[in-house]
Each structure stands twice: as C-alpha cells, then as structure tokens.
Design goal:
This protein is of the alpha/beta class. It contains five helices and eleven strands.
Length: 208
C-alpha cells in the first residue's frame, strides 16, 4: 500500500520508489484517506505508473485557457532503467477528508475504468484557487477554474463516489480493524485468482 498526505514535490521520488518496489505484486493500493490535495499537475506523473498508453484523465478550465490532464506512461525508473507501467489491479481508498488533487487523481482514474475506488464519498472541494492581495491589506482566496473528468463529470460539490462504499466505525478503530483496506485487498485477491496479474509476491506497505 502507498499512502501519503499531500501532493507536494518531495513526495514524488518516494512514490516512484514505492511503485518500483511493488511492481511485481499482485496489486497495488493507493490510500488517499485524509489526503487534502496539493499540486494538481503531479496527478499526471503518478497516474502514469498505471497506464501503458497516454490516457486522458480530465480537463482543468479557467477563463483564459484549459489544461488537459493525461496519465503519461512512466517507462523508466529513477535510475533510468526501462520498466513497464504496472498492469495489475489498482485500488484507491478515499474518505470524507480526501480533497482537491486527490479527488482529481481518484476521479480521473475511476472515469477511465483503470481503478476500483473504496471508502466514502470525498469532500467535493476540487476547484483550483489562488490568493490576491486587496487594497485593504486583506488576502482573498478564490477559485479560478474547474476540473471535469474525461467522462465530463464535475467533482466540485459532489465528490468522488466510491465504486464500493465502505465505512470506518469507532468500533473498527478501537479494534484496530480497517474494513476499507480489507475490502480493497479482497477485490485484488479476487482479480489475481482470475489471472489478471498472476504470480505476485505478498503485500507490503509504504507510507510517506
């Protein structure tokens, strides 16, 4: 499992190393629970670990222009060695705190059918925003664009709706259970039995 709490540049190398380390596993879990977002452009590079061809994920539109988001296949590792993007099943975990760039990543990949999403509906706070200094000295933080998935769906105010809704209760927390992760692992195990990604190694976890 790969887990990190924000989309910031220092996380890039760690995510890359984790994907490379887990490349031969039966499946991968990307845990975005509690991840409130960050640099949206990072979505394209991280998503590229899971696509063999350049694949559209969505569009960011502003008043002046628009930016097309693509999953750009990652064909080499950090050492420059040739690799193949991970082709096995990928599960994404989300909750009510998952927001912004994390929603773009989960919703964009979900719309292409590449992943299965588990957990609870995300925050629905996807709009990119900037700050402007006002004459009074106050700072105005305001939205300046909108993101829609390749399916034409706006996630703002709606959030990413999981393919499999699973809740985490107080009793689960007290008992050390994680039903959301367990549901994802059961799905990956079922995909592996079907032969979609045979011959992997036992699971590992990488947190960042």
């Amino acid at each position: 499992m790969i887990r990190f709490n924000n989309w910031m540049v220092p996380a890039v190398a760690q995510v890359d190393r984790a994907v490379n380390e887990f490349r031969e596993l039966d499946g991968m879990v990307v845990d975005l629970r509690g991840n409130t977002g960050g640099l949206g452009a990072m979505v394209m590079g991280v998503a590229g670990h899971f696509y063999a061809t350049r694949t559209p994920l969505g569009t960011m539109r502003t008043r002046q222009n628009q930016l097309e988001f693509f999953a750009n296949p990652r064909l080499s590792d950090g050492s420059g060695n040739r690799v193949t993007p991970f082709a096995g099943p990928v599960a994404i975990l989300i909750d009510q705190i998952t927001a912004s760039a994390s929603e773009m990543f989960a919703g964009g990949m979900q719309a292409t059918g590449r992943v299965r999403v588990f957990g609870e509906t995300t925050m629905g706070a996807v709009l990119p925003a900037v700050t402007d200094l006002l004459p009074s000295g106050d700072v105005l933080y305001h939205a300046m664009g909108d993101f829609t998935t390749v399916a034409g769906e706006s996630l703002e105010g709606v959030g990413v709706i999981p393919d499999e809704r699973v809740s985490l209760s107080r009793d689960d927390l007290l008992a050390g259970r994680d039903p959301i992760l367990n549901a994802a692992l059961r799905w990956i195990a079922g995909q592996s039995r079907d032969g979609s990604n045979p011959g992997g190694r036992p699971g590992k976890e990488r947190r960042m």
